[in-house]
Design brief:
The chain has one domain (39-251). 33% of the residues lie in helices and 15% in strands. The protein is built from four helices and seven strands. The strands form two sheets. It has a four-stranded antiparallel sheet with strand order 4-5-6-7. The longest helix has 51 residues, at 22-72. 33% of the residues are buried.
């Protein structure tokens, strides 16, 4: 038995036994590279689809928070209305007293992504659902502007959003949920372009189906290209964007 085992060991250690050649190793590496090149795009697509689903759930939860707060405040969507003595161009400034005692000032239409500050000023709680899973630059738990953009139709009288309107600061006000004529067709929140393209790089931003939450509380993925065009917002330098600057404001619809 000992001689037999020794002979086997000597045979395996023999320099004449066959092994892996450099050519075979290079061929194996080439095959692995091809397989990875095929698999990685599919893996990225799976990850993007998973993040789409997470973002859709987040934006619906965010809309629910806004609507719940509105229900507790006379049907008014949560807009900061304490005037500040600052002005931002033609836009008036508004202020908030935060739970830590600090004062926060920003322009009226900065509410589009500053609505979390309003909610935190009232309850002092921060929710991860207010942010996109594609936002990798944010420190967990840090309060910052939301990745879900609030429609500007919630911030001005519907007469502000006529194409022939004289858009003046006197028409700026919080809009009530009950004022929306087409709640199932009017977007309340839409995910911002930067975070959508972070998981769908190289795509046409207007054609990518992005998460949108509607005033009636439901959410779905829709392309901006399919929405009705907005009207210019003169107090914001002529800014125009579907869902944000909807014609007729809370009386109009987007899809």
């Amino acid at each position: 038995m000992a001689c037999s085992a020794a002979s086997i060991i000597r045979k395996r250690a023999s320099p004449t036994s066959p092994g892996v050649t450099i050519v075979e190793l290079l061929v194996s590496l080439a095959v692995l590279s091809v397989l990875l090149a095929i698999a990685l795009p599919a893996l990225r697509a799976v990850r993007a689809t998973a993040q789409d689903g997470a973002s859709l759930a987040n934006i619906q939860s965010s809309a629910r928070d806004l609507l719940t707060e509105a229900n507790a405040d006379g049907d008014r969507l949560p807009i900061a209305t304490r005037p500040s003595n600052l002005r931002f161009g033609r836009q008036p400034g508004v202020g908030l007293s935060m739970p830590d005692g600090s004062e926060l000032m920003f322009s009226w239409f900065a509410h589009v992504n500053a609505w979390p500050f309003v909610l935190v000023s009232r309850h002092g709680e921060l929710h991860e659902s207010w942010y996109s899973p594609s936002n990798l630059d944010r420190e967990p738990g840090a309060l910052m502007s939301s990745d879900y953009i609030l429609t500007q139709a919630a911030m001005a009288d519907p007469s502000y959003w006529r194409r022939d309107a004289e858009q003046t600061p006197e028409l700026l006000r919080p809009v009530r949920v009950g004022e929306f004529e087409h709640p199932s067709q009017k977007g309340l929140l839409v995910e911002r372009t930067q975070t959508v393209l972070a998981r769908r790089p190289g795509k046409n931003e207007a054609l990518v189906a992005r998460p949108i939450a509607f005033v009636d509380g439901h959410a779905q993925r829709r392309a901006i290209a399919d929405a009705r065009p907005g009207v210019p917002n003169s107090l914001q330098g002529g800014f125009t964007r579907p869902i944000a600057t909807t014609e007729r404001g809370c009386l109009g619809y987007d899809y």
